[in-house]
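Milestone 3.1: sequence recovery, worked example.
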């Protein structure tokens, strides 16, 4: 009788272990810089990754009608062209730190999600502040 319970527990633990670790491998998303990607391009082709760096000044092209954003992401050493379909976040700008989730396809990073790094400090508007004062505070924090 004890053998049946032990066998049942082992089967359940084995199934749980397979679901946790087997699923983890398929859903793992790597975080890379442009330099890391360029060192091992073949490994990351058509695999989901997060690419982090700075938006290179002078490279941002946004087509409002098609909602297509193109820019170059750099880590100061290497550069990678990025394509993102959709409206960029309000704080997106040249020289800004960003993380783009997506896949590399034919040398271009096809972004599906664009995250903008912003200041960690929060200062709520004080009572009586005008919208211009609030806007100035936000711009200074960036």
């Amino acid at each position: 009788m004890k053998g049946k319970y032990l066998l049942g527990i082992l089967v359940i633990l084995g199934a749980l272990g397979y679901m946790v670790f087997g699923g983890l491998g398929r859903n793992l998303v790597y975080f890379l810089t442009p330099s890391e990607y360029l060192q091992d391009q073949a490994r990351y082709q058509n695999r989901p990754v997060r690419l982090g760096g700075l938006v290179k000044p002078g490279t941002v092209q946004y087509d409002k009608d098609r909602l297509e954003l193109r820019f170059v992401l750099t880590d100061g050493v290497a550069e990678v062209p990025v394509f993102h379909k959709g409206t960029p976040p309000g704080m997106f700008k040249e020289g800004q730190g960003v993380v783009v989730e997506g896949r590399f396809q034919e040398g271009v990073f096809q972004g599906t999600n664009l995250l903008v790094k912003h200041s960690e400090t929060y200062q709520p508007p004080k009572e009586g502040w005008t919208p211009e004062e609030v806007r100035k505070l936000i711009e200074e924090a960036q």
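The longest helix spans residues 2-27. The CA atoms of residues 119 and 141 lie 6 Å apart.
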